[in-house]
């Protein structure tokens, strides 16, 4: 028996690192041997957008950053405040 429909949510709210959101891609690749040739995969595509930002010695601050260049760093803030 082969899989004919694969549905997943590629965005995870509790992701601490950017590549955690690629878990759906890795899971789909792992299941490729079980997928039928006409399998419908939802979502069918992805676009990755990124910006390079250097935070020199940010780990030494030990205080919340909040937003930086319109990016929310609340996940980092929770990690650094522990």
Number of strands: 4
Give the termini separation: 47 Å
Beta-strand share of residues: 15-25%
Average of the residue pLDDT scores:
82
State the major sheet.
Answer: 2 strands, parallel
Percent helix range: 10-25%
Total helical segments: 2
What integer value in Å does the Rg equal? 18 Å
* Domain count: 2
Shape: elongated
Class from secondary-structure proportions? alpha+beta
Low-confidence stretches: none
How are the strands of the largest sheet arranged? 1-2
Order of helices and strands: EHEEEH
Oligomeric organization of the protein chains: single chain
What features would you describe in this structure?
The protein is α+β, with helices and mostly antiparallel strands. It folds into 2 domains: 1-48, no CATH class; 51-82, no CATH class. It has 2 helices and 4 strands. The strands form 2 sheets. Strands 1-2 form a two-stranded parallel ribbon. A two-stranded antiparallel ribbon has the order 3-4. Strand 1 (3-7), helix 1 and strand 2 (35-42) form a beta-alpha-beta unit. The chain is elongated, with a radius of gyration of 18 Å. The model has no long low-confidence stretch (mean pLDDT 82).
């Amino acid at each position: 028996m082969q899989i004919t429909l694969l549905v997943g949510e590629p965005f995870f709210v509790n992701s601490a690192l950017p590549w955690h959101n690629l878990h759906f891609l890795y899971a789909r690749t792992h299941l490729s041997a079980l997928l039928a040739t006409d399998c419908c995969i939802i979502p069918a595509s992805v676009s990755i957008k990124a910006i390079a930002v250097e935070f020199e010695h940010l780990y030494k601050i030990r205080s919340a950053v909040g937003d930086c260049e319109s990016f929310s760093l609340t996940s980092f803030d929770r990690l650094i405040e522990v």
